[in-house]
Amino acid sequence: MTPFVPPGPHYDLAFFCRLKSEGRRFAMLTAYDYPTAAVAQAAGVHALLVGDSLGTVLLGHPNTRAVPLSLMLVLAEAVRRGAPHVYLVGDMPYEAMSGGAEATVTAAKRFRAEAGCDAVKFEAASGDERLVTRLGGAEIEVIAHLGLRPQQITSPDGYRAQARDQQSIASLVADARRMADAGAAMLLLEAVPNEAAQAVVAAVGVPVIGCGAGPACDGHVLVTHDMLGWGTIRPPRFVPVLARVATVYEDAIRRYVQDVTSRRYPGPEHVYHMRTPAGEAGQ
Length: 283
Ligand code: KIV
Prior knowledge:
The chain has helices at about 15-20, 35-40, 55, 70-80, 95, 100-115, 130-135, 165-180, 195-205, 225, 245-260, and strands at about 25-30, 45-50, 85-90, 120-125, 140-145, 185-190, 210, 220. By secondary structure, the chain is of the alpha/beta class. The chain folds into two domains: about 15-245, Alpha-Beta Barrel (TIM Barrel), CATH 3.20.20; about 245-283, no CATH class. Helix 2 crosses helix 4 and helix 4 (about 70-80) packs parallel to helix 6 (about 100-115). The longest helix is centred in the C-terminal third of the chain and has 17 residues, at about 245-260. It is globular and about 75 Å long. The structure holds 3-methyl-2-oxobutanoic acid (KIV).
């Protein structure tokens, strides 16, 4: 069943291509739940990614491989409910990428049909341009994720910047060209130097989203929890930590514990009362 999307402005691929052609930037964040999506849309974000980073950020796994497709679909659907007008991208989890091309296409179709995603993103290796073409044949917009590919990393200390010499930049550019020629709607570059991003942006016509890829990119994406200071993982150096949400939560929870143990909570204002004899309901 196609999820209900209320009428209204909806950012689509043409919008991002127009921004790129005008030299304007767009902002993308991760979201894994309804309230985050609603707040992000209200704050003007253009695109949301239901990233498989939730495996480490929300589920506490050491890597992203254990994220079930079924969970991604449920959360993507919740994000779409919270943010009906953003460009919504479902991230293809390891499970959906490891069962062959047919399984990948089926999973991508489910992101669109069950969660109302506009596009899917997957971590692309050399040779995956055939998959991009196949997904395009099923009329699915694809974002090819190049550079650092977290699904290839199994320990928390394995996250390292990529394409830091001329040879690896050339190979990144070649991959980027192949993905764009195969029909990728956009590219995403994670953890590469700005020189590498510049070379990719110059080589392809599609919008390039950077995640720690420097100012040359057309748009930028961050893991929201990292940016909000909400979580236990130390954010990478490219993340601007713009709030300290963990501290806000901790202070409030500490106060709640103190209030309960000292009997300050519940106070009279938190207590239900019995019906009055006249039959009126208590507050
Ligand atoms: O899973 C994710 O959140 C991502 C971003 C880090 C780009 O792939």
